[in-house]
Specification:
Pfam families: GerE, Response_reg. The chain has 221 residues and is α/β, with parallel strands linked by helices. The chain is built from twelve helices and seven strands. α2 packs parallel to α3 (64-74). It is globular and about 50 Å long. The two termini are 31 Å apart. The mean pLDDT is 88.
Length: 221
Amino acid sequence: MQPIRVLIVDDHALFAEALAARLGREPDLVILPIAADVRRALALAGTERPQVVVLDMTLGAESGLDVLDRVREDHPDVRVVVLTAMSDLDTLVQAVRRGAVGWLSKTEGADLVARVIRSAARQGGWLPPEVLGEVLRRLAAGDARDAGGTRLLADLTPREREVLQCMVDGLGRAEIADRLGLSANTVRTHTQNLLAKLDLHSALEAITLAMRAGMRPGSGD
């Protein structure tokens, strides 16, 4: 199995070091140097090439959302999992809108954190089951942009719509490439283009918008 490179971004030194030591015992996880602030996180994201960033939402006076925005902008392939003591649902929804693929409480065990990291690296994600329904409801009905989903989807090219349908079907990038006979890089480009046209930041948002506009799993077969 290909090792997964993991960057922990957390200003709580004892917690971050303990987490790094525990995750470092997982044979498939490579734990990179810890980042305690936004500047260090962005520098390490560029030099250490993590596949998954485990991100706290509070970094002293700084916000983890700033790291999330910059990482998603500069390194769109990097998957971000939030690991935080915060329980604010509005912040959770903001994080998902801005590209986070997972949200975990710091009270969760390291075994679950490791599983979510692996899922994120495989293009999956994880949200607490007890809030998943409300998060999806807010993503689906949060603003006028989503309400105009059908009109927005009309701006996509036929190929972008095919890629979006594959996303609705639950396929990862490699599976989309195989289904459509494209390279993974071409699928990445189409995905980035359709997210830009829809003014969205994550696949989860795109899937929510597509389903609100009438797309359903398997409807492209």
